[in-house]
Task: structure prediction
Amino acid sequence: MKKILAAALFVFLLTGCAAIMKYSYTMDLMKTYTFNVPPDAAYSGAVDMFNRIGVHIDSSGRNRGESEWASKKAKLGDKIYTEMTRFMIAVTPAGDRGSIVHISRQSQSNLTGGWVMGNPARDHSQEYTLLQKLDPAGAAEIDRKAASMAGSK
Result:
């Protein structure tokens, strides 16, 4: 019985590790992915995706936009502080019908007293969610590549 339980736990551990590796490879592939949709369609799809989760994007140029700062209270031990986050979208043309999508998240907090602002960081998981919406076949191809990369390690 102990051997069966140990084997089951081992399989569960391997499955979890494979899923984490697949996610990591998916995000790596999104770093250089070119969407097979025009820039205007990619930008409007990104704005719609954020509107659906309650984040309003204000346009700041052609196929560029950013959200307002959203704040929330957080706690670390006994210290209560405020975190603020905003999203930025930039879509550039790539070839005849393609586009490169950059969705970034920027955060700041007053945990250490004064406000400390972090640099914008690309949010590949949001880019992948957009890819699933705009080009399901492209998302499936990314999934296949990531799964094969995770399986070959």
Notes: The radius of gyration is 20 Å. DSSP finds four helices and seven strands in the chain.
